[in-house]
Design goal:
By secondary structure, the chain is of the alpha/beta class. The protein has a single domain, classed as Rossmann fold. The chain is 31% helix and 29% strand. The chain contains five helices and eight strands, in the order H-E-H-E-H-E-H-E-H-E-E-E-E. It has an eight-stranded mixed beta sheet with strand order 3-2-1-4-5-8-7-6, with helices on both faces. Helix 4 runs parallel beside helix 5. The longest helix is centred in the N-terminal third of the chain and has 15 residues. The chain is globular.
Length: 178
Amino acid sequence: MRIIAGNFKGRKLESLKGNDVRPTGDKVKEAIFSMIDEYIEESVVIDLFSGTGNLGLEALSRGAKMCYFGDNRSESIRVTKANIENCNVSEQSVVIAGSFEKVLSKIPEKADVIFLDPPYDKEFMALCFEKIRDFEILQDGGIIVAEHGLKEKLPDVFYDFNKMKERRYGTILVSLFS
């Protein structure tokens, strides 16, 4: 796993062992960032279910000004912190351990981009969208990037957010909402 573009292009990131976490692969990550490029510069980003911090670090590499990383697994938090240190972006990063609800409740500002990549088929997606709406954490004009499995089809309007795009990459769907 590596950063694919921007200031940290080519930087290798530490991975997690086992099958519990599936980091976004380079092909899907490149597709995501080509879809959201206009939103990244000087943005505030949330990498919810951060795993290794892969998506948030890619955003920082491409010009985001701040990223909040959240995960409830201690090993994910450790690896995310190590990858933040490796990319020298500690001053632009906040790591919050805990459930996604706790993470969202502790973020002091609205985000321009929220990456949602929860465990597939666990019905987290609806809860995430509901909490993002309830906490009013997405900036007007901001986007939610939801990565999910093929079985979890998301509606065109989901908790007051409108689907802008949806793309399929093998067994993965990426849906953009605003």
